[in-house]
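hey
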């Protein structure tokens, strides 16, 4: 049997001694778009930061496997080289660093290459054309003066450049208007395919109108409490999360 691209096994995580995740189990298979939904405070962002090895988040039990191998001993850059990618809910601003230089450094680091600016520019232009991003975007400083939609667009461009085998997107529709949500969704749809897996972590169903999930899981109070198909996301949109809290 093929190993999952990402497998989270009985994951317990604490922050400053306070338990947040209390036994999360979840798999993302190759070719799958898996949506993890939950209300604020359910542990969604804690999970995403833990996946990339943020030192603030202490794993007290369980494991995180990428294609069957544990990544818990690895630093964030090593996890990226294994094919794990995280698009942050609130990307940071890096004044003075252009998008092109930032992406070239990320590409060379993740791929173990040493492309010159000219060589990398060929790669970048191809990806930008595919995503419908204007070339002037590459000359701007990373997230400086960017709108919410532009920040998310850069995350999608970074994902396209790095070509991870499993992409974790933390609330990619957060704070976006409907046009920006569609742009981000188009980028996700352009990336997803039979050779990679996508985990979309979200509060709302709306981005799933444009990126159809294969599977939907619900996290409440640090545990995955229900799994289903796309119909589960529609039920949550209609009924909220209280009906799952009240379930035996």
């Amino acid at each position: 049997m093929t190993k999952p691209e990402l497998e989270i096994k009985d994951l317990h995580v604490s922050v400053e001694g306070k338990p947040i995740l209390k036994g999360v189990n979840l798999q993302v298979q190759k070719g799958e778009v898996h949506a993890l939904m939950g209300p604020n405070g359910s542990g969604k962002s804690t999970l995403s930061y833990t996946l990339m090895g943020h030192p603030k988040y202490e794993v007290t039990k369980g494991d995180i496997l990428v294609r069957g191998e544990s990544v818990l001993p690895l630093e964030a850059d090593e996890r990226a080289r294994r094919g794990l990618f995280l698009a942050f809910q609130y990307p940071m601003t890096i004044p003075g660093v252009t998008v092109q230089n930032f992406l070239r450094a990320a590409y060379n680091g993740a791929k173990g290459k040493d492309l010159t600016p000219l060589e990398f520019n060929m790669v970048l232009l191809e990806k930008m054309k595919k995503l419908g991003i204007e070339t002037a975007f590459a000359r701007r400083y990373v997230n400086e003066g960017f709108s919410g939609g532009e920040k998310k667009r850069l995350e999608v461009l970074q994902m396209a450049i790095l070509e991870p085998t499993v992409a974790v997107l933390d609330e990619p529709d957060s704070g976006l208007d409907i046009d920006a949500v569609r742009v981000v969704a188009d980028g996700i749809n352009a990336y997803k395919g039979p050779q990679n897996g996508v985990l979309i972590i979200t509060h709302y169903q709306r981005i799933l109108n444009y990126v159809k999930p294969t599977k939907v899981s619900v996290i409440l109070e640090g545990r995955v409490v229900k799994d289903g198909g796309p119909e589960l996301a529609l039920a949550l949109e209609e009924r909220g999360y209280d009906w799952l809290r009240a379930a035996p």
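Helices lie at 44-51, 76-81, 99-111, 117-131, 148-162, 178-191, 230-239, 242-245. The chain has one domain: 6-245.
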